[in-house]
Structure prediction request, 638 residues.
Amino acid sequence: LNGEFDLIARYFARPAPAGVTGVGDDCALFGVEPGNQVATSTDLLVEGRHFFSDVDPRALGHKALAVNLSDLAAMGARPLGCLLGLSLPSVNHGWLQSFAEGFHALAARSGCPLIGGDTTRSASGIVISVTVFGQVEAGKAMLRSAALPGDDIWVTGTLGAADVALRLLQGSLPEDEHLLRKVRGALEMPEPPLSFAQGLVGLAHAALDISDGLAQDLGHILDESGCGALLRYDELPRDPALQCLDPDLVRQAVLAGGDVYQLCFTATVDRRAAIEALARDARVCATRVGEIQAGSGLRVVDAQGVRIPLEVAGYDHFS
Amino acid sequence: LNGEFDLIARYFARPAPAGVTGVGDDCALFGVEPGNQVATSTDLLVEGRHFFSDVDPRALGHKALAVNLSDLAAMGARPLGCLLGLSLPSVNHGWLQSFAEGFHALAARSGCPLIGGDTTRSASGIVISVTVFGQVEAGKAMLRSAALPGDDIWVTGTLGAADVALRLLQGSLPEDEHLLRKVRGALEMPEPPLSFAQGLVGLAHAALDISDGLAQDLGHILDESGCGALLRYDELPRDPALQCLDPDLVRQAVLAGGDVYQLCFTATVDRRAAIEALARDARVCATRVGEIQAGSGLRVVDAQGVRIPLEVAGYDHFS
Prediction:
């Protein structure tokens, strides 16, 4: 156990923030402000499945936390702290140092200190488990089930770059160093719009983070809310690096590409000015891309109003 | 993602308890009573490292949660809920069914509902990540650093059986079906003394759960509290199944055997009667086994007061 403790102490221990008892006891302890609920989420990242073995460990440390912070953003919660589980086939000190730097840089910037964890040797391959905690005013969290017909559908950031980066790194697109340089950051260093998301509480209805592709993720809002939706394809914010690519590829990347870690949310029409002001203050790009409708199902239409078929399915971990 | 959702819904979804928004949104939400802190802990269980590939999946589901509940017990926290991350090389429905049954049976009995999680396909081998949260009155959690000279040292349950079971299953002890039947439950179905532990808050000083061997774990209390301790070997509660085994083996199993998931705690002498009454009410066996002393280091003595050398080290995950 000393080795285990030393790993945590050496690479991951930071001074505990006020009100937190951190790494080193059986549990970490933290407080919650009166009138708030705790929002929590956990994600597993598996080597060879969610990241390449040769990925920059600093980017991996960043992303392991970012994908979880993205879940807090989806509910409008303010981060309180996180736990890290690391299963490693061996101890590589340079790797751990860089991983910890990437993790802590985002943790510090997001007000989400690492307060505990577990390290263990794995049989084969790295597995990373991150759990985040945040707080949100009781009863005010943005739920997937809260969309209403007539709501605008909004998307933050841009779409498609992470998917193109993944295709380039997997070799399913021909090698293109120039393009890879432009899209790689979207895949490896996502930046969930945390403070913008907290400002959305009370303004927006439903929200979620785009992790498995806009079409599929928006489908969850529709299923949970019992609504349909119209999405205007030409209004979807796409990454500028995609403009020279084949239009079919772009459509798949924009509608079905995962790993975005930006928000899709809905809000009534009379909230447009408030949301635009919030986006300006938070330096976030927020774009209206469609509307929630009565009924069911998602229709995507082009600039001429012609329906685009949705044969491009999202990603199923076990299909 | 549908496959992912189906796995969770099919095997793990249960009706959410009051005040909890459970499986299906980006985060789970739960409330904390005023004046309480959240206690949280996470553990990774890796196939081939923490459990055998052919372990009964029902027992594994139980143990994955039990080792985390044990951390809540160590702080005196009352369980509120848990998250489960499962990384599986393939989907085995019978296995998942049994795993979920074992997990949920303990969750229901402990008041610790599963409120969220993540399932993913692994490159190789099963990895289980469980995060638990509980609540404890602010400032009242039992910490490793709270032992004081003069405190009694107490242990709940009995020691040694899990270690002997592990040795039998690993083949480092000769095959003995009769013995294995008697000790296997201690290894595979540990039962942390949760309600007893909550009653200890305000009675005990320091506490932790015995996961890596009594000598090593007690050493953490001594290090954190800046104390020494005397442990009376003959007073340690050992599992009755150990009585016919070689005394050297028994000593290693009792002092250095891990996977116990019972408590070691300290309390002043004037708390003896209250602790004994609490143990009776909770149907827990609690035994005084030594005392905290000024100075540093752990001394273990036999019935004649002769020192027993501590060359039997605990388990180091990365040694």
Observations:
- The CA atoms of residues 302 and 316 of chain B lie 26 Å apart.
- Chain B touches chain A through 74 residues (CB under 8 Å).
- DSSP finds nine helices and twelve strands in chain B.
- Chain B has a mean pLDDT of 91.
